[in-house]
Each structure stands twice: as structure tokens, then as C-alpha cells.
Amino acid sequence: MIRGRVTGQVWATKRIETVPHGALLSVELENGGELIALDVLGCGIGESVLITTGSVAAGYFTAMKAPVDALIIGSIDE
Fold first, then answer.
1. How far apart are CA 50 and CA 24, in angstroms?
2. Rounded to an integer, what is the distance from CA 43 to the centroid of its chain?
3. Do 5 and 48 meet the contact criterion of CB atoms below 8 Å apart?
4. Given a cut of 80, is residue 64 above it in pLDDT?
5. How far is it, in rounded angstroms, from Cα 33 to Cα 12?
6. Number of compact structural domains in the chain
């Protein structure tokens, strides 16, 4: 798992059909990097989150083969 902080929202008005419903959020990682993660939990800007990547992220969506490489799986209580 990766820890990060939500820094903003990424708007994508056009998506392929197999991208699940959820917000695309920009997340700053602890190591200074940044990534875009799919958020199905409703996290907000400034919130600390846990992210999973790769096949584990895509495997969360059992009804379809989702092209998701980074998924927010938890909000960290501070």
C-alpha cells in the first residue's frame, strides 16, 4: 500500500465505458511523487489516503475488467 495526500481533482468528461464510476484524484505521495488514483470512497482535498496499485486495484472491480492502476482503498484518520 502507498500513503499519500489528495491535492486535487482531475476532470475527464470523456472516458471509455469500462472505467468505473468514481472521482479521479491527484495524490501527492510521501516520497514527493504524484499519481492519479480512482476514488470510490468520496475522499476530499487534503485528506490522507491509502492507495493500492496494479492488479490488486483492478481486481476490486469484479463486474468488469476495469483499466484501473491506482485505487484509493482507505482514508487515514489523523
1. 15
2. 9
3. yes
4. no
5. 21
6. 1
